[in-house]
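A.,

Following up on our hallway conversation. Structure tokens first:
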């Protein structure tokens, strides 16, 4: 019942997001690489998640971090760059929206071993040019922790090894929200065509995140939508620099 309610809320959100932003606030921006047409929309992903059976993954069983890192390369020095667009509610007039366009750079700069033996990675995320104050997402630090057979980012388990089609897992203990993985095969982003990819969908109240994940590279496309105070994010991979 909770999931049906979530789908209804997201459907209303996506309907509202269809309004033109021509009346929005304009900010000086640049966009070196245009945003590509999404390969899978959040609304379509939610519809598929509601209609197709999913396989609840087993509780985490510890696996060697090397197996996880082969799929999700978090080695120190790795850099991902994304062409980004964020549509956000104007903080001075909630009837209008603004649009930020720029480059999002994620760089792994630190690896540590925690007292309990878990491996943690720290990523510096930089948005250029600096987004206006109305944009919640700003440059900052993101922490990833390998635990069991998954990866935790900011308290949410965003990845579980090995992925399989229609697989789900508890995204955060006690939250009541599941992460849902769906196999989509080949995807095409500015960085190039990638094979063997999955979408990872997390729908909560009041938002939804849809990441496209390709083993061996990581996240190649990110979408986020928030209801109420609007913020829509769309990032697509334009370059990837692994550690040599």
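Then the amino acids I'd put at each of the 244 positions:
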């Amino acid at each position: 019942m909770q999931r049906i309610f979530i789908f209804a809320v997201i459907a209303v959100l996506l309907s509202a997001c269809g309004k033109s932003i021509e009346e929005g606030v304009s900010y000086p921006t640049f966009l070196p690489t245009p945003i590509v047409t999404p390969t899978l929309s959040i609304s379509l992903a939610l519809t598929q998640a509601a209609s197709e059976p999913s396989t609840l993954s087993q509780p985490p069983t510890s696996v060697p971090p090397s197996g996880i890192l082969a799929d999700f390369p978090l080695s120190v020095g790795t850099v991902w760059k994304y062409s980004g667009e964020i549509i956000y509610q104007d903080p001075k007039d909630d009837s209008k929206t603004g649009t930020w366009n720029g480059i999002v750079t994620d760089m792994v700069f630190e690896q540590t071993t925690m007292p309990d033996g878990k491996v943690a990675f720290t990523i510096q995320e930089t948005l250029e040019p600096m987004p206006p104050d109305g944009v919640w997402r700003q440059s900052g630090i993101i922490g990833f922790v390998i635990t069991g057979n998954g990866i935790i980012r900011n308290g949410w388990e965003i990845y579980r090894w090995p992925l399989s089609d229609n697989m789900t897992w508890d995204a955060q203990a006690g939250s009541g929200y599941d992460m849902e993985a769906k196999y989509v095969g080949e995807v095409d982003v500015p960085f190039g065509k990638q094979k063997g990819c999955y979408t990872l969908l997390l729908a909560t109240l009041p938002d939804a995140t849809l990441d496209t994940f390709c083993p061996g590279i990581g996240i190649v496309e990110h979408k986020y939508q928030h209801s109420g105070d609007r913020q829509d994010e769309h990032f697509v991979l334009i370059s990837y620099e692994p550690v040599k």
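The chain has one domain: 2-241. Curious whether your intuition agrees with the design.

B.
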